[in-house]
Amino acid sequence: MTNAPAKYRLLHTMIRVRDLDKSLDFYQRFLGMKILRQKKYPEGKFTNTFVGYGDEKSDTVIELTYNWDQEEPYEQGNGWGHLAIGVSDIYAICEQLENEGVTITRPPGPMKHGTTVIAFIVDPDGYKIELIEKS
Question: Is 130 a catalytic residue?
Fold first, then answer.
């Protein structure tokens, strides 16, 4: 069954954002993602924007949901972990992000109990993003 086509594929992860413009700037400018599609739902008072690195037909993306009347920050709960993004030259990328004012909660370095080089940054809504060095 290893050669059979997959029945399932992860399509996207949805996170709620309080300031869509600020979030789009973060994911595009700092993480190099593109806006893939966006739809406003006036009756529901929300906008869904899908961002990522490639076509949704083959790549997993992030759905940013902006509820127009949300004034308070969202509570992320204690079950939320993080998004993970593969990068090259993690040290240079983190230095650049830090110079741009991006919060780095864990500087780049080998992970505890391993050798993979990782770092953690935070987006405008407080979501943690793990950067993983890929060769």
Answer: yes
